[in-house]
Model the fold of this input.
Amino acid sequence: MKHKPFLDKKGLIKALEGHFTLEWTGLHGAPHWARVRSYGLELCGLCDADRQVVELFSFLHDCCRQNDLHDPLHGKKAADFAMTLNSVYFRVNNRQMEMLYFAIAGHSDGLLHHDPTIQTCWDADRLDLVRLGIEPNPRYLSRLAATIAMKNRQSVANLRLESGPLRVQGIL
Ligand SMILES: [Fe+2]
Done:
């Protein structure tokens, strides 16, 4: 019997295109989600986090933003929205849905969490703060993520040295 994937990625992205009201390629749009996914999956390879939850977090956590600045309710709205999509575009169990809900709802509260899945979601989002010109603060990252942030800082510094103006593609 063929194994059914847990996520209908095409279907989910199409649904998000219809739902997301900000610029698709803007600060909190699809390119950010893709980088959060990439950071998240990198971290999943190094710790005990749930890859499915981390991947879903990347696509969903900012999808209910109404603006790119102060929007304190966007996490809770996105967590509620994510619940309506389970069994439609993805299939996760109750425990995974609880973690996904908590991670999305609290992702912009500046907290740390002992659960590796929830912290990995938040780490992945915070590592992409560099796109806003903000260096991620190790105080709000797991030790693993802080190591990646340090590596990225060195890569950016090296690029500056090598090529003058910063080439952002592939890093930011
Ligand atoms: Fe984000």
Notes: The domain at 9-163 is CATH 1.10.3210.10 (Hypothetical protein af1432). The chain has seven helices and no strands. The chain has one domain: 9-163.
